[in-house]
Amino acid sequence: MGPETSDDAGVYRISPDCALVETTDIITPLVDDPFTFGRIAAANALSDVYAMGGRPVTAMNVVFFPACSLPGEVLREILAGGQSVIMEAGVCLVGGHTLEDDELKYGLAVTGLVAPDAIIRNSTARPGDILILTKPLGTGIISTAIKGEMAAETITSESIRWMTTLNLAAAGLMRECHATAATDVTGFGLIGHASEMAQGAGVTFCLEFSSIPLMSGVTDLAADGMVPAGCYRNRDYYGSLMDRQEISDSGLLPLFDPQTSGGLLITLAPDNAASFTKSADNRGIFARRIGTVQPFSQHLIKVV
Questions:
Q1: Measured between alpha carbons, how far is 174 from 114 in angstroms, rounded to an integer?
Q2: Cβ(207)–Cβ(301) under 8 Å?
Q3: Mean pLDDT over residues 292-301, rounded?
Q4: Beta partners for 109?
Q5: Is the Cβ–Cβ distance between 276 and 177 less than 8 Å?
Q6: How far is CA 84 from each of CA 43, 58, 98, 166, 302, rounded to the nearest angstrom?
Q7: Are 163 and 44 in contact (CB under 8 A)?
Q8: H runs (alpha helix) in 89-183
Q9: Does the pLDDT at position 250 exceed 90?
């Protein structure tokens, strides 16, 4: 499996009952603390394997570091932060590569394993399925506010907690409950990634606006102009693919917000969705029903 339907990772079968899941993801800093940045970047990179139904097993550090302007201690803290999340995920760090560059960037190249008959793609949703989201939205808007020193400490802490939370538990439950399709919500925002899923499956995703969870303070920060450029780019590109009903431009902005280490967007048959949300509640896993999958009708996305 390659880039044909914008799946989250490539998959290469190496035997009848085992396939490799391969991905890489690199980001620039969202926070000032280098250890926390390392944790966020590692959780973000591992997420693509979870979204495919796979189990990450090895990782390699990929670093672009401005050695002339930052001390070596910053690099050590970034790598230590990444290692802490890699260990939490039960993944083996097997190496990496560092380049000197003008802009600091860090991420991982990750290899996972999956049984070929257990792969969860982003293009296989079915009419009648229920849509589940496993993290609230808002990391792009909050990160913009952090850079502008406009985010309260409580809001910053909440955003960091979500960005450093692995999708490990949610992915395990997704497999148990026989998800029909999944993706992780990252740079294209909820609308962008939902559009990719709907287009691949030839269906319409009907999103229930009032059910879509947002992080604390996101609405007010967006109203104050703390909106990343990527949010507007996503809106300009994906806005034509949706039927927005009577919802205002400002209300829709968080749905286009580019996420870092976002949650999983999962489709499940109704009975399995009920099992998923019940089990998630019992296990302390965040999960919200945000809509349904319908036969295709004019637009890939309908927001009601």
A1: 14
A2: yes
A3: 96
A4: 24, 60
A5: yes
A6: 10, 14, 19, 12, 40
A7: yes
A8: 139-147, 153-163, 168-176
A9: no
Measured distance CA(52)–CA(181) in Å, rounded: 9
What are the CA-CA distances from residue 208 to residues 24, 98, 205, 249 (Å)? 32, 44, 10, 16
d(CA 253, CA 12): 37
Distances in whole angstroms, Cα of residue 35 to Cα of each of 18, 29, 41, 95, 302: 35, 11, 10, 19, 40
Radius of gyration of the chain (CA): 19
pLDDT tens column, 136-164: 999 999 999 999 999 999 999 999 999 99
> What share of the chain has pLDDT > 70, as a percent?
100
Question: What are the chain's domains?
Answer: 10-118 (3.30.1330.10), 130-303 (3.90.650.10)
The single residue listed with the structure tokens 């968080």 is 254
Query: What residues have CB less than 8 Å from 189, skipping those under 6 apart?
Result: 137, 140, 230, 231, 234, 238, 255, 256, 257, 258, 259
Mean pLDDT over 83-93 rounds to: 98
pLDDT category at 4 given cuts 50, 70, 90 is confident
Residue 213, pLDDT above cutoff 90: yes
Distance between CA 121 and CA 146 in Å, rounded? 34
């085992």: which residue's tokens?
Answer: 18
152-163 burial, b at 16+ Cβ within 10 Å, e below that, comes to: eeebbebbbebb
Q: What is the mean pLDDT of residues 169-181?
A: 98
CA distance 89 to 166: 8
pLDDT tens digits, 33-68 = 999 999 999 999 999 999 999 999 999 999 999 999
